Amino acid sequence: MQDTPTIEVDSDIQKQLLEKEQVLLRVRQSRIGPGGSAVTPISIYITNMRVIYRKPIWVGLKSEIIDVNYQDIADIRLKRGIIHTDIFLKSRFHTDEIAVKGTNTHIAEKANAFIQQGIRGEHPGQVMHRQPQRTPNYNYYSYSQEERQSEDIESKMDPVDKLTKLADLKQKGILTNEEFQRLKIKLLEKI
Question: In the chain, what are the domains?
Answer without folding.
Answer: 11-120 (2.30.29.30), 140-190 (no CATH)
